[in-house]
Amino acid sequence: MRKIFYILMAMTFTLTACELETSGNGDLDGLWKMQGIDSIASGSFVDMSQRQVAYSVQMNLLQLSGIGSSVFCRFEHKGDSLIIYDPRAKGSINPSITNIEVLRPYGITRMPMPFHVDALSGSRMILSSDSIRLYFEKY
């Protein structure tokens, strides 16, 4: 009986010591495949569905992949606002990215890059800035 008591006490302390981390990102977390880029100024649309351009969101990191090497960025997501900043090249000696042209294929035209979250659900996301709109589907 005493042995069972000690086992139950050990399990209780083990379970209460565990803490699950959550990001608080809700539907934003996950892997998003870019479907298209819409130019608000000119009205032109670029179909990206056949390309492997993706945003991968986890905790406070955003990974941009599919064009050249991966880029990691920090972001802030509050309500209908998403601000991307601090881009870093993966595996580089000097990881800080200062040439914004590297990020242009991902729909990022400046740093920090503010987006309005037009739509966000478990399956689709639409982000817009003052000049472009990005369409995504969740993998």
Task: Explain how this protein is built.
Helix content is 12%, strand content 43%. With 139 residues, it is mainly beta. A hairpin with a 2-residue loop joins strand 3 and strand 4.
Q: Write down how many β-strands occur, each being a DSSP E stretch of 2 or more residues.
A: 9
SSE string, helix = H, strand = E?
HEEEEEEEEE
Question: Helical element count?
Answer: 1
Outline the low-pLDDT stretches: none
- Strands of the widest sheet, in order across it, are 1-3-4-5-6-7-8-9
Structural category is mainly beta
Rg, nearest Å = 20 Å
* Helix content, binned percent: 10-25%
Residue-averaged pLDDT: 86
Task: State the separation between the terminal residues, measured CA to CA.
Answer: 51 Å
Biggest sheet statistics: 8 strands, antiparallel, barrel
Which overall shape is indicated by the principal axes computed on the Cα atoms? globular
Strand content: 35-45%
Short summary of the structure?
This protein is mainly β. The protein has one helix and nine strands, in the order αβββββββββ.
Any key phrases for this structure?
eight-stranded antiparallel β-barrel, 1 helix, 139 residues, 9 strands, single chain, mainly beta
SSE blueprint:
Blueprint: H1 2-17, E1 30-39, E2 45-47, E3 54-58, E4 61-65, E5 71-78, E6 81-89, E7 113-120, E8 124-128, E9 132-138
